[in-house]
Model the fold of this input.
Amino acid sequence: MAHNHDEKLKIAAANMPNDRVLFELSDLFKVFGDTTRMKILFSLFEGELCVCAIAELLKMEQSAVSHQLKILKNANLVSFRREGKTNCYFLADEHVKSIIAQGLVHIEEEI
Amino acid sequence: MAHNHDEKLKIAAANMPNDRVLFELSDLFKVFGDTTRMKILFSLFEGELCVCAIAELLKMEQSAVSHQLKILKNANLVSFRREGKTNCYFLADEHVKSIIAQGLVHIEEEI
DNA sequence: TTATCATATGAATATACATTCATATATTTG
DNA sequence: CAAATATATGAATGTATATTCATATGATAA
Done:
């Protein structure tokens, strides 16, 4: 036990969210932390798209896109509706854009 | 080439950010996507802390904390100042809180 | 029903990464 | 200077995960 910082530690500890919140928060951001998923989200900014359209746009295999869409769906970032043989995916709500917008502000401020 | 979705694809493609932005964005969110780093960020919400204080608070090895602080520093989420033998880390700017706040809004809205 | 199209999914693989361990660096104190 | 303290860092390891491949499911059309 080296130098003392009990006061500051108490304050920091008192303001630390519980584990559930910490896990859910980092799990949420983890979903944004992948280029493929980020591309998928941006592709849905202007409206819904079916899986094969996304795959064509990103030049990726349909399977890979489906796997990532599942992750996005589990995180409540996208939803979909069935239309005949296709599944049309769309952004689940406006938070998605808000969160990305905050990220954009940050990266655009680096000199 | 199955059914047609050229119109929607054009719109989506036109609004897709360039690769640099996509990479920087997902790289930024990736940094938030880890429980340890999230804890470190929250521990700095009320003010600066030295490395050993963070390690003590999180009950983690100093080395692990240092490694994660480096990642946070590279992402411009934290800065530090030298004070004698210790390094005092603090949040780099208010974006950090804004981004986390947006994430909190999202996870708290799940029913 | 059979064939086709659109999507989902399990298993396998390759890569990314968080933590640990050992050690290096830097500052202060004796 | 040597010893102690605070931190940083490279290498190794184990785990998480993105993609691919093969295949299953589900809907429509012939």
